[in-house]
Amino acid sequence: MTPLDLLDIDASLSEEERQIRAVVRQLVDDRVRPHVAGWYEDGHVPARELAREFGKLGLLGMHLTGYGCAGASAVAYGLACLELEAGDSGVRSLVSVQGSLAMYAIWRYGSEEQKQRWLPAMAAGEAIGCFGLTEPDHGSDPASMATRARRDGDDWILTGSKLWITNAPIADVGVIWARTDEGVRGFAVPMDTPGVTAREIRHKMSLRASLTGEIALDDVRLPADARLPEATGLKAPLSCLTEARHGIVWGALGAARDCLETALSYATTRTQFGRPLAGFQLTQAKLADMAVEWNKGLLLALHLGRLADAGKLRPDQVSVGKLNNVREAIAIARECRTILGANGVSGEYPVMRHANNLESVLTYEGTSEIHQLVIGQRLTGLSAFA
Ligand code: FAD
Hints:
Blueprint (H helix, E strand, L loop, with lengths): L14 H18 L3 H7 L4 H10 L17 H14 L1 H21 L2 H12 L5 E4 L15 E5 L2 E12 L6 E8 L2 E8 L5 E5 L11 E11 L12 H35 L1 E2 L2 E2 L4 H29 L5 H25 L11 H13 L4 H13 L6
The structure holds flavin-adenine dinucleotide.
Flavin-adenine dinucleotide (FAD) binds next to strand 1, strand 3, helix 10 and helix 11.
C-alpha cells in the first residue's frame, strides 16, 4: 500500500495478488535497489544471477501454465512487473523478454519437444531467451523484414541480422523471426549454433542495466525441428508483443511510482525560503496532478489485466494502455526531476535513471506513434500505417 493510492485501488486486489506483490517488492528491495545505480553507471547487470533468483520465485513465464511455469493471473503478473520496474526498467525488461516474448513464443507456437527442451530451464532461469524481430533497417514495420530462412533438404538456412535485441549477449536460445517463401516463420535458435554471433551494444544512454545486442545470422543451418510449427505469419510475433506490452502497461507505473515517492520524500525534507518544498502550492499542484495521472494509469492497467484474465483483452486495448501509461510515466519522471532540482540529475537519486529508461520503454514494443495508429485504425476503420 502506498500513500499514492488515492482511490483505494488496493482494495480491489485479491489477497493472493497483494501477497505476490509484496514478495516481489521485497526481492527488489533486497536484490535490486542496493545495486542498481552501480549497474546503471557501469552499463552492466548480473543478468544470469538475477534470472536464477527470479526463477526461484516463479517470476519467469509466471503467467504461463505447465513446464515449470507458475500459472499466475495476468493481474498478478502485471503487479510483479510494476514492482520490478520500480527497481529499474532494465530489470523488468529481463523478465518481460524472457517470459512474455521468448517463453511465450515457444509455449504458444512450439512443438512439445521444443517446450520440453526449453521452457523448464527458462522458467528456472537456467536458460536465457531473447526475441529477435527488429532489424537494422526494419523496426516499426516488421512485415518488411529482410532476414530470410530457406530450405536446404530438411534443414533451414537462416541469413540476416537483428538489432536492439534484449538479452541477446547472454542468451542460450533466440526466438528468431524470418521470411520464408511461405511467409514469416519463427525459429528457436540455440545461440551457440555455428554462424550465430551476438555483439553487445554498448554506450546506451537508457536502459543501461539491461543487456542489448545485435545478432548476426550468417548461413545458420538449423534442423527442420527448430521451426516453431504453429507460428504462421506476422500475427505470431505480434501476439507475443501483445503479451509483453501488457506487462509494460503495469511496469511503467512502477518507474513512475518510484519517482513520485522519491519526489514526495524530497519535497517534505528539502527547505527553501524557510519552508519545505512540499508546502509550496506550485509543488503541491505538480504532486497532485502526477498522483492523479498515476491512479488513472493504475485503474487502466487493472481494467486491462482483468480483461486479460477473462480472456477478452484485444491488442488495440493493450495499445491504449501502453500509449497512455508509458507517456504519463515519462511525464511524471521528468516532472519529479524538477522537484529534486540539481539533485534530480544525480545518480544518487533514481529519478533521472527512470526517466532515461522510459525513453526506451516509449520506443520498444511499438512506439507511441504506432500505438496511436493502432487506436486510430480502431476508431476510423482506416489503416494509416503506410
Ligand atoms: P523506426 O521504426 O525507424 O521509427 C522511427 C520513428 O518513426 C519513431 O518515432 C516511429 O514511431 C516513427 N514511425 C515509424 N513508422 C511510422 C508511421 N507509419 N507513422 C508515423 N510515425 C512512424 N526489438 C526486438 O525485436 N527485440 C528486443 O528484445 C528489443 N529490445 C529493445 C531494447 C531497447 C533498449 C530498445 C531501444 C529497442 C529494442 N527493440 C527490440 C527494438 C524496438 O522494438 C524498436 O526500436 C522499435 O520497434 C522501433 O523501431 P526503430 O527503432 O527501427 O524505429
